[in-house]
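QA checklist item 7 of 12: single-chain prediction sanity check.
[x] sequence parsed
[x] length recorded as 193
[x] structure emitted
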Amino acid sequence: MPLYNPTAPDTVNLKTERAMAPSTFIAESRSRIRLGTTSTPTSGTLYLVPIHLAAGTVISNISYASNTGITSPTNWWFILLDSSFVGVAVTADQTNTAWGNNTTKTVAIAATQAGAASTFTTTYTGIHYTGIVYVGSALTLASEGSLTSALGGVTPMFGNSNTGQTTPPVITAGAFTATTPSGGIQQHYSYLT
């Protein structure tokens, strides 16, 4: 999946997409087929979507766009994984920080496999995965609908992965590998800056 060019002409609702995106994003995960407008991950379950990244991309933040936010969460955090579902960067737990409706949340990288860090640099060109875990009332994410097309000649898995999650995992030295997600869940927007 090529990197999204926010200045290129497009027939899909670019005004809405641009409004949700952080002003300086370097990549986003989304399909080009609009089959739905929201996605509802399950509380306490790691939810993954594929994102294509070039080698040498420096990532400082992970962002997600809500449709319906969470008013009383106990935990929520974001993670970046490689093509083998191994955690390579994770944010800090945002604990009980509220997340409003129609709001894009941008959270800084807090750790990589090397330990505490504020950035992660990709080592290969290809599919990576962004992930979200929240614990609380139903969170609905802005979405592009079911992903039915291949990305870059492969059909990556996406959807629900590890269950029973609360706080971010330890990822140092590749200590966290997510289970293969189940496909068919709606693709939602995530952004890397």
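[x] summary fact logged: The mean pLDDT is 74.
[ ] second reviewer sign-off
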